[in-house]
From TrEMBL, chain A:
Record-given protein name: Protein SSH4
SMART domains reported in the protein's UniProt record: CRA, CTLH, SPRY
CDD domains: SPRY_RanBP9_10
Biased composition (Low complexity): 126-145
Residues annotated as domain CTLH: 440-490
Transmembrane parts of this sequence: none
Region (Disordered) location: 126-147
Residues covered by the B30.2/SPRY domain: 155-344
SUPFAM superfamilies, per the entry: Concanavalin A-like lectins/glucanases
Chain's role: Involved in the proteasome-dependent degradation of fructose-1,6-bisphosphatase.
Species annotation: Trichoglossum hirsutum
From TrEMBL, chain B:
CTLH domain span: 53-140
Keywords associated with the record: Membrane, Transmembrane, Transmembrane helix
UniProt function note: Involved in the proteasome-dependent degradation of fructose-1,6-bisphosphatase.
Transmembrane segments: 92-111
UniProt source species: Trichoglossum hirsutum
Superkingdom per UniProt: Eukaryota
Pfam families per the UniProt record, alphabetical: CTLH, LisH
Name under which the protein is recorded: CTLH domain-containing protein
Disordered: region residues: 251-271
Length: 677, 271
């Protein structure tokens, strides 16, 4: 009973709002929900506040602020979410995606980590996130022993690691002005988004300014970091400095006047680069102006914008850990910051896009000759594809591809010496793969789990014994497939509306006499399915089949449960719970757990089994030792990835390496740009 | 001891569904209809386009590959460019079409592929000339009249429009003067089958673009990204193994993971 009700509430209750695809693209569109750029000024009017009009709930003004996963329907003015952010999680858990970073792999990692943290803190989202060996994960390699892949990227281990180990790798984005990293002469308001100069303290008014740093440094992994400041009140002289500085720079002067500090000042429009003498740069700025400040970590250059206009490169050779910073000097001076919670006035997205175009052009012009000499690009790709097809057991495709490549090569020969395009290896693979049982993958992909189990046991009897977690996942998938069929039959039976009542009754009826009663919350109105006999044959048939299949499914569920009940592993328990959650819905296809029924969920199961079979098949296969090394790198002790997969893995690590300090890699999101067709 | 880089590589998980999508995209884009059909079935993917529709591209490519340029040009001119170019349904296309020039091309090309692309048209005609020359020089005392006629009627009028055209034409005509079995490398390369491949690829790209598709498969970007990223990482002096093996060869020495440390391995390091 307790378990049912607890996860039923998880399934149907509020936390489901955190369930969203983990690709960056999946949530970035939410930014569009924010007020259009032109309307940003309105946000300073108290009237715009969605409910209370209170400053304390400022976060509500930014529907995008919680944009990690709020679905469109809940995003706008969702009171619930607003409270959640301000209450339970606190500001540190707030995550938003600045528009220009919506495709950033770094921000995607932040989002994944954020999600992982939420689920780890026991907020109950885990069953439905794509993490943690969930059955719905689309990552083929997730298994129950490894908490893993949310989707792609490098952050998979975050759940298990100590926060510190990845603390540096995943420096968060600045979100607000710091409450403590400031001088007392400055007051931080509105959840850290506004700062106001309240007084010079005592002593020498002329020399004492007060500055504040943001809560976090600008992460170089962004490639470009950008924020905007709206001057709410310029005070008497507009002595406001906007820029950035290192963590240890004294805060009693405006940004730019000290070493390791850079700023643009409103009173004279001058730039200050680590010294107290400035140089002419742009216009002065004053009340209602919006000043933007950006750093391109690839080039090491800083720039400013004013009211949406680029003012040009301001600084070069920017180095070190730098924080957004603002300083003021006269009473009344008051500014508000936008770190990307709401749309920017300046079109920073285009700057980002231009930067990406440059890099993409460079990549497109790169020669791949060094990857695998002497193969040229075309031959290399042919070899990679052929090897992948063979390695992963796409036998028919491998054969067809081989033929087409050979035909192509033959046409090109025209009597000259042949430069066969690296496809000889294919023959070997074909031979290796001419083994029975390769219909197994197809069977799973078609949802025929029984057939897959039968074939696997017949041809590779040890595979399921040695890979218990694969066996478990197959069994769970079988249950899901049965539920799926039930759901389909239900739709069929319901196509005749007059019978829907009796079907509802049937559903309850079935549960009424069954084992799951202790876990089910039943409707009260139990009817008996007495009017079967009145039905037309076809519909009656569908009803009958539905009834039978539902019973079968329940029975299978019992078996499954009793078989794995004793398994103490958290992943197994969770997967079981998730699977059985299908039972909570009369028509799971139209419920919040509908994603479990997606045929795409078959893919990881099929791939996992396939890998295990490959491993099994090559064990003892008479290959020279060096060839076996390829399939079994010693340190892994399991079948290795295909070369194409290896190439992707290497690329991911390489891109990460060249992006961590703000280099070119920061502008690349492999999953988003190179692996999504 | 395995290099830490390799260990990090091992920890990366790449979704097979993503790789499969890249493969299918490649098979369709580069014109392997039979493999594409089988793969869609075996990997259970619903292809975004009708696989049959790539047949005409394949036929044009085969014609170019076997040197039948006349047929290829006729087939290209028969293609009906789809007018749905502006309603590009794939959201990803903007990330791929990297330069504004390409986007312009997308809009302009539907008129007629070769008319709107003089460079491509010239490349095809030039290849046709090469094939005619190949024919007449491959036999002793072959008749060079067809080649000469073709050059004067088809290529010469176009050559003045572009200095590169002129240079290409002159270089090609030189093939008539020198004996085919003793050519200097730049001339020899004209007779190499790879020229057919290059032109065929360009034609394929132009057709794809005219149909509102990406001109190249993602796969090409992917391998280039891999090469580029390694280059950048080495420039930045990142800690990498000497060589990053893909594991493509079965009969080559094993990966750089240090599985074998015998003499053979040391030797291969030296070479």
């Amino acid at each position: 009973m307790p378990r049912r009700s607890s996860y039923a509430s998880v399934v149907s209750g509020a936390p489901i709002i955190y369930q969203q695809p983990s690709r960056a693209g999946g949530f970035s569109h939410l930014l569009q929900q924010g007020p259009a750029a032109g309307g940003y000024l309105q946000q300073h009017q108290p009237g715009i506040h969605s409910r209370s009009g209170s400053r304390a709930l400022d976060i509500e003004m930014y529907p995008g602020a919680g944009s990690i996963s709020v679905p469109a329907s809940l995003g706008r003015g969702s009171n619930h979410f607003g409270q959640t952010n301000n209450g339970a999680f606190g500001a540190t858990h707030t995550l938003f995606t600045p528009s220009y970073l919506r495709n950033s792999s770094y921000v995607q990692k932040l989002a994944d980590a954020h999600r992982a943290r939420l689920s780890n803190h026991g907020y109950g989202f885990s069953t439905h996130s794509s993490n943690a060996g969930s059955l719905s994960t689309s990552s083929s390699s997730a298994n129950l022993h490894k908490m893993a892949p949310s989707h792609r990227g490098m952050t998979y281990d975050i759940i298990e690691k100590e926060p510190q180990t990845n603390g540096e790798a995943l420096m968060p984005l600045p979100t607000r002005w710091s409450d403590h990293d400031k001088l007392s002469g400055i007051d931080v308001l509105a959840d850290g988004l506004e700062v106001r100069f309240i007084g010079p303290g005592k002593s020498n008014q002329d020399h004492d300014a007060a500055a504040v740093r943001a809560d976090h440094a600008m992460p170089p992994q962004c490639g470009i970091f950008y924020y905007e400041v709206t001057i709410i009140n310029r005070g008497k002289e507009g002595l406001i400095g906007i820029g950035f500085c290192g963590p240890n720079v004294s805060l009693n002067r405006l940004p730019g006047w000290e070493p390791d500090s850079w700023g643009y000042h409103g009173d004279d429009g001058r730039l200050f680069c680590c010294q107290s003498s400035g140089k002419d740069y742009g216009p002065q700025f004053s009340s209602n102006d919006v000043v933007g400040c950006g750093v391109n970590f690839r080039t090491g250059c800083g720039f400013f914008t004013k009211n949406g206009t680029m003012l040009g490169t301001a600084f070069r050779d920017i180095k070190g850990k730098i924080f957004p910073a603002v300083g003021m000097k006269k009473p009344g001076e008051h500014v508000r910051v936008n770190f990307g919670q709401s749309p920017f006035v300046f079109d920073i997205d285009s700057v980002m896009a231009t930067e990406k175009e440059l890099i993409d052009a460079e990549i497109a012009a790169t020669s791949v000759a060094s990857l695998h000499p002497p193969l040229n690009e075309t031959s290399l790709i042919q070899a990679l594809v052929a090897q992948y097809l063979a390695h992963d057991g796409y036998v028919e495709t491998a054969r067809a591809f081989g033929e087409e490549v050979r035909t192509e090569a033959a046409a090109l020969q025209c009597g000259r010496q042949s430069s066969t395009s690296g496809s000889e290896a294919k023959e070997d693979f074909d031979a290796i793969n001419r083994q029975p049982g390769l219909g197994i993958r197809t069977a799973i992909l078609e949802g025929d789990i029984d057939k897959a189990l039968k074939y696997t046991n017949a041809y590779y009897p040890t595979v399921l014994r040695d890979n218990e977690q694969i066996y478990f996942r197959l069994r769970c998938r079988k249950f899901i497939e049965m539920s799926r069929q039930c759901s389909e039959l239900l739709t069929l039976a319901r196509s005749s509306p007059k019978h829907s009542d009796s079907l509802d009754g049937l559903h309850n009826d079935l549960y009424d006499d069954d084992v799951f009663e202790q876990e089910m919350e039943l409707d009260d109105q139990v009817q008996n399915g007495s009017d079967w006999d009145r039905m037309e044959t076809e519909e009656g048939d569908a009803h009958m089949r539905y009834k039978n299949l539902t019973e079968e499914t329940l029975h299978y569920g019992q078996l499954l449960q009793s078989e794995f009940r004793g398994d103490g592993r958290k992943e197994v328990k969770r997967a079981l719970e998730e699977t059985f959650s299908l039972l909570a819905y009369e028509d799971p296809k139209n419920s919040v757990v509908a994603h479990l029924l997606e045929p795409s969920g078959r893919v990881p199961v099929a791939e996992e089994l396939n890998s295990a079979i490959l491993g099994e098949r090559f064990r003892g296969f008479p290959l020279p030792a060096c060839q076996l090394c390829f399939f079994f790198p010693v340190s892994l002790g399991k079948p290795s990835s295909a070369a194409l997969e290896r190439l992707c893995q290497q690329t991911e690590v390489l891109v990460n390496d060249i992006g961590e300090d703000g280099g070119v890699g920061a502008f690349i999101n492999i999953g988003h740009e190179f692996l999504s067709c | 001891m395995r290099h830490s880089f390799e260990r990090r590589v091992d920890d990366i998980r790449i979704s097979k569904a993503d790789i499969n999508a890249v493969i299918l995209d490649y098979l369709i884009n580069e014109g392997y209809p039979s493999a594409a059909k089988k793969f869609a079935a075996e990997a259970n993917i619903q292809p975004a386009v009708d696989i049959q529709s790539i047949q005409e591209r394949v036929e044009i490519r085969s014609a170019i590959h076997r040197g039948d340029i006349q047929t290829a040009i006729e087939n290209i001119n028969e293609l009906n460019p789809q007018t749905s170019v502006l309603s590009m349904s794939k959201p990803g296309i903007f990330f791929l079409v990297t330069s504004t020039l390409d986007i312009l091309a997308l809009i302009i090309v539907p008129l007629k592929i070769l008319d709107s692309n003089p460079t491509l048209h010239f490349a095809l005609l030039r290849l046709q000339l090469v094939e005619l020359i190949r024919e007449c020089t491959s036999v002793p005392n072959g008749d060079i009249t067809p080649a000469l006629n073709f050059a004067t009627t088809q290529l010469a009028p176009r050559a003045p429009t572009n200095p590169e055209f002129l240079e290409d034409l002159e270089r090609t005509m030189a093939l008539l003067i020198f004996p085919p079995d003793n050519l200097v490398p730049p001339l020899a390369s004209l007779l190499d089958p790879s020229l057919r491949q290059i032109v065929a690829n360009k034609v394929n790209e132009a057709i794809l673009v005219s149909q509102g598709a990406r001109k190249e498969p993602k796969m090409r970007d992917l391998v280039r990204l891999r090469a580029w990223a390694e280059q950048k990482a080495r420039e930045a002096k990142k800690d990498l193994p000497l060589a990053l093996e893909l594991g493509l060869d079965l009969d080559d020495h094993p990966t750089s993971s240090g599985v074998t440390q015998g003499n053979g391995d040391a030797e291969s390091m030296m070479t």
